[in-house]
């Protein structure tokens, strides 16, 4: 642990060589209680001892006889080191110092120097620690963070002498100048290293303790924004404190963006709007995930309209904890282009309140499909001509850095296709299937007309598609009844059609 030592020389009384000192050490660190004899003409093995003064009298910490024999008392046991060097240093080292080690310690060195008297060092050891009123807090708990100095010096009663840091940053919350900080409702933002700094007799000492807050660690606060490009897959994070098992429930709270007017929340007008259903490609966390505390959900394919608020909730030690997050969808809108006007691409986010800047880059691939990225613009919109075929990516940044990106592919026709590659192949696939079905339908109709014409020597007008399908079904039934005969007849006709 961190070595923290504060020595304050109070007074050095002359002739008899008595020194009074204060040492403040963080609990768990190594404390050094100094005992120095400045006269360096020392005999090699002066007799010395360290005594701890307690309520029930004195107890020996360690002692060395003139003969050189060293005794170690049972008070500190192996945590104490009394070295006793020949250079006049008789300091006591205490490893992993504890609260109960605090108190007055006296070092006395006898017969040091030729014919001199006893040198005495009185060292007051104060142990400082940060403690929490609950050893393990759950989100929502009421908690106190306390800075405890044992024994507490009178001078510390002034509240101006305490300062607090949370994760290394000055804490300015409720009561931040006091020895204890009240937290009415603990959240993940209170999680981390709490450091108490005490200004005592002109010197600063600090002690640090880690506060664990059980609950949902990621996202750590409500209404976190999660960005995803339309057509991409994404993860809606919900990670509980490691080691917890919680069966999280996912639901959808609202559709649309919190920054738009179409947004609504469950609550005030929940009667008018039932809660929206989860998107089609929503995948709940598996029942037996690799880490039980990771209850993140997935969206296989983000669609337009999936944006909105989602809520993940679970129980931690029979307390309900939940986290709301907003899915923000990103897409590229292209203005209709004609031969003369250039094509305008717009980077469109369902909620852009966190976005501080945009960047457009062009991605090109060389022979070995290594991508080269060239910055082309810093505006939300980008103007292109139809010759600018290829891949264009809009990156959007917030205060915490890159938030995400969305890709646009400009093809020969220009402006027809947008989104990510998966979306395009999907669109193309749908188009091919659609055309296939249409052609098949036309073929069947033609075949039907032809067959009826041949068989009955008459033409039936078909006013509507329903009729076609209906007679088609009738025909199929008839065909099945007649058996192979019909099939033989129809084969050459199919070829003709
Ligand atoms: C707290 O301090 C420990 C030890 O210095 C460090 O490993 C840890 O990352 C810190 N935690 C946070 C949340 O800063
Ligand atoms: C979570 O659900 C699984 C399956 O339904 C069940 O076996 C398990 O006990 C549940 N765990 C908790 C912590 O509720
Ligand atoms: C691409 O690779 C082929 C063969 O590997 C080479 O002949 C050609 O010059 C390369 N083209 C470019 C533009 O590097
Ligand atoms: C970007 O926007 C600024 C002002 O909004 C404008 O002056 C500038 O011409 C734009 N740049 C491009 C490349 O469109
Ligand atoms: C866009 O984001 C994806 C996923 O984060 C990343 O793999 C890709 O390199 C990014 N593209 C650009 C051009 O920044």
Automatic annotation (TrEMBL):
The record places domain Ig-like at 18-124, 139-212, 343-395
PANTHER family per record:
MICROFIBRIL-ASSOCIATED GLYCOPROTEIN 3, T-CELL SURFACE GLYCOPROTEIN CD4
Give me the stretches of Low complexity compositional bias.
Answer: 251-269
Q: Which Pfam families match?
A: V-set
TM region(s), chain numbering: 430-450
Name the record gives this protein: Ig-like domain-containing protein
Transport as UniProt keyword:
no
Write down the species: Alosa alosa (allis shad)
Q: Which residues form the signal peptide?
A: 1-17
Any one GO CC term of this protein is: membrane raft
Biological classification of the source? Eukaryota, Metazoa, Chordata, Craniata, Vertebrata
Swiss-Prot/TrEMBL GO biological process terms: interleukin-15-mediated signaling pathway; positive regulation of ERK1 and ERK2 cascade; T cell activation
Name any one GO molecular function.
Answer: MHC class II protein binding
* UniProt-annotated stretches for the region Disordered: 251-280
């Amino acid at each position: 642990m961190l070595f923290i030592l504060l020595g304050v020389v109070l007074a050095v009384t002359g002739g008899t060589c008595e020194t009074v000192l204060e040492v403040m050490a963080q609990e768990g660190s190594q404390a050094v209680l100094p005992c120095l004899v400045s006269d360096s003409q020392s005999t090699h093995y002066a007799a010395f001892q360290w005594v701890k003064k307690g309520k029930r009298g004195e107890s020996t910490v360690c002692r060395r006889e003139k003969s050189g024999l060293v005794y170690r008392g049972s008070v500190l046991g192996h945590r104490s080191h009394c070295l006793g060097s020949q250079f006049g240093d008789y300091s006591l080292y205490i490893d992993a110092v504890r609260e109960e080690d605090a108190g007055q310690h006296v070092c006395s060195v006898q017969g040091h120097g030729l014919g001199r008297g006893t040198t005495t060092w009185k060292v007051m050891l104060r142990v400082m620690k940060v403690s929490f009123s609950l050893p393990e807090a759950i989100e929502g708990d009421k908690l106190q963070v306390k800075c405890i100095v044992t024994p507490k010096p009178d001078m510390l009663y002034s509240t101006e002498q305490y300062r607090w840091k949370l994760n290394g940053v000055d804490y300015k919350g409720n009561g931040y100048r006091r020895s204890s900080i009240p937290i009415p409702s603990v959240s993940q933002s209170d999680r981390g290293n709490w450091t108490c700094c005490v200004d005592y007799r002109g010197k600063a000492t600090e002690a640090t303790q880690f506060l664990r807050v059980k609950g949902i660690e990621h996202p750590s606060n409500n209404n976190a924004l999660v960005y995803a490009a339309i057509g991409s897959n994404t993860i809606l994070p919900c990670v509980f404190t490691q080691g917890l098992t919680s069966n999280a429930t996912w639901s959808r709270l609202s559709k649309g963006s919190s920054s738009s007017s179409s947004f609504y929340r469950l609550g005030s007008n929940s009667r008018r709007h039932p809660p929206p259903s989860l998107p089609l490609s929503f995948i709940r966390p598996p029942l037996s995930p690799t880490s039980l505390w990771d209850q993140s959900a997935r969206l296989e394919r983000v669609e337009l309209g999936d944006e909105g608020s989602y809520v993940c909730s679970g129980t931690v030690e029979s307390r309900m904890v939940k986290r709301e997050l907003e899915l923000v969808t990103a897409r590229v809108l292209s203005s209709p282009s004609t031969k003369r006007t250039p094509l305008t691409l717009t980077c469109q986010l369902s909620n852009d309140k966190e976005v501080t800047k945009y960047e457009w880059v062009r991605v090109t691939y060389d022979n070995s499909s290594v991508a080269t990225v060239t910055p082309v613009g810093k505006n939300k919109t980008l103007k292109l001509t139809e010759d600018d075929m290829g891949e264009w990516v809009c990156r959007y940044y917030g205060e915490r850095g890159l938030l995400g990106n969305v890709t646009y592919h400009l093809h020969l026709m220009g402006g027809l296709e947008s989104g990510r590659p998966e979306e395009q192949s999907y669109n193309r696939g749908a188009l091919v299937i659609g055309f296939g079905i249409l052609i098949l339908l036309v073929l069947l109709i033609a075949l039907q007309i032809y067959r009826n014409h041949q068989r009955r020597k008459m033409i039936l007008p078909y006013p509507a598609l329903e009729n076609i399908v209906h007679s088609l079904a009738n025909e199929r039934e008839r065909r099945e009844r007649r058996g192979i005969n019909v099939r033989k007849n129809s084969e050459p006709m199919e070829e003709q059609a």
